């Protein structure tokens, strides 16, 4: 049975993660959380802690900064909802170790239609401000935009979140 | 009689203030403008002046950089439309005097359902660009996102404005 | 016969150009591409090259960094779809040679209802991030917002693009 992919896109502090978590909780499926964020510094550590606290205790948590496709293959399954939070942190991690982003993007996008169960991806929209001064930020912005486009094209449902409220863009 | 709260969210120069002003003018209610902006420098002074010019003369204007909940208590009322422009400038002012932003956000959100008459809040969405370099800008972005979520959750209608056009997100 | 104007607004790497190009290709009209971008540096040159490659060979291409209204007068016509990509690069070019942006914006907006055939404008939304540090970036952001509002007001259809997906805002 083919699975279902939901893509949740939004800005910083837009409520996108909470929205995705509610979708999982309402599904009644077994919940698995794939965290792509690494606890680099205190600020990040605090955010991850707040994030963990908001989720209920019934979630299984997997931390996977780089091998997202491997983690999805290992954890997606019938009767499960796997929440990946978030794609832009995964992209940051990939760029730090100089992976081929276009290849990673293509690999993720091509596996989405094959994944069993329900899979939700959370990602940041980062392209709606002024062009960044430094070249790495511009490169990141380009990669993130292409990654978001690829996942949105492969997903069954897409939501844009602002101020905690969803706009359905697809599905 | 319970009042009605309208939240207008948008980017810089998106036409969000003009949209909110049109809603007030079409309401036929007595219009009160609560300006949270202080005329810090020439650029800001000019913006406030342009802003004043666009509004008609029938508006009463209140300048209140910090005590927004007090101003709302004093000015909201049956038969009135109070326009607060804007929440992100209020947030800036609060941060400059080191107020407890979470507490201020909660206080504003909790009073919204009790306000009489029509109240409109204008705010900037600031979370859709690249992560800012400096920590204060990141902190501002986090506070603004949470404030926008709280007001959107309490509001009866929410609009996202881009290029002068509204997308209705709630109500 | 009055023409039709379509305005496509979106972030960096949002898929806005590809969306506009698909609209042109689906129209079956003769396609003309007005590129406002100048090949300033290698990064820009590469983007323009990728852009050219994605379009089919049946497109006529015009490069016009400054005199956009002249190019529209010369190339818009019955049975044609003219795609202008993009307005924010045109704005950048105008600012570099210190043109009167308000006047250029008004001139473009006022000619839109008179243009024959189909004309599509692509533009960046740049106002949804943190306030930029430097004054020129703030000025650019203000001009871009006002330009987008003016074109959106004059257009028959307006789309906001995120992650390659359109939200119809008008028409």
UniProtKB/TrEMBL annotation, chains A, B, C:
This protein's UniProt keywords: ATP-binding, Cobalamin biosynthesis, GTP-binding, Kinase, Nucleotide-binding, Transferase
Pfam families linked to this entry: CobU
Single Gene Ontology MF annotation: cobinamide phosphate guanylyltransferase activity
Positions with a binding annotation for GTP: 10-17, 35-37, 52-55, 63, 85
Gene Ontology biological process terms in this record: cobalamin biosynthetic process
Top enzyme class: transferase
Catalytic activity as recorded in UniProt: adenosylcob(III)inamide phosphate + GTP + H(+) = adenosylcob(III)inamide-GDP + diphosphate; adenosylcob(III)inamide + GTP = adenosylcob(III)inamide phosphate + GDP + H(+); adenosylcob(III)inamide + ATP = adenosylcob(III)inamide phosphate + ADP + H(+)
Tagged with keyword Lyase: no
EC id: 2.7.1.156, 2.7.7.62
Pathway terms, separated by semicolons: Cofactor biosynthesis; adenosylcobalamin biosynthesis; adenosylcobalamin from cob(II)yrinate a,c-diamide: step 5/7; Cofactor biosynthesis; adenosylcobalamin biosynthesis; adenosylcobalamin from cob(II)yrinate a,c-diamide: step 6/7
Domain of life: Bacteria
SUPFAM superfamilies: P-loop containing nucleoside triphosphate hydrolases
Active site residues per record: 51 (gmp-histidine intermediate)
Task of the protein: Catalyzes ATP-dependent phosphorylation of adenosylcobinamide and addition of GMP to adenosylcobinamide phosphate.
Similarity annotation: Belongs to the CobU/CobP family.
PANTHER family in the record: BIFUNCTIONAL ADENOSYLCOBALAMIN BIOSYNTHESIS PROTEIN COBU, PTHR34848
Protein name: Bifunctional adenosylcobalamin biosynthesis protein
């Amino acid at each position: 049975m083919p699975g279902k992919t939901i893509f949740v896109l939004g800005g910083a502090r837009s409520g996108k993660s909470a929205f995705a978590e509610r979708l999982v909780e309402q599904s009644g499926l077994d919940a698995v959380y794939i965290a792509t964020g690494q606890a680099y510094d205190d600020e990040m550590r605090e955010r991850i802690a707040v994030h963990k606290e908001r989720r209920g205790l019934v979630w299984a948590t997997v931390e996977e900064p780089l091998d997202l496709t491997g983690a999805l293959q290992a954890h997606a399954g019938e009767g499960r909802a796997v929440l990946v939070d978030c794609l832009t942190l995964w992209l940051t991690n990939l760029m730090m170790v100089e992976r081929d982003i276009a290849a990673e993007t293509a690999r993720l996008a091509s596996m989405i239609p094959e994944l069993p169960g329900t899979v939700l991806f959370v990602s940041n929209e980062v392209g709606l401000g002024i062009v960044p001064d430094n070249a790495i930020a511009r490169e990141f912005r380009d990669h993130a935009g292409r990654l978001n486009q690829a996942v949105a094209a492969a997903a069954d449902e897409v939501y844009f979140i602002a101020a905690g409220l969803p706009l359905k863009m697809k599905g």
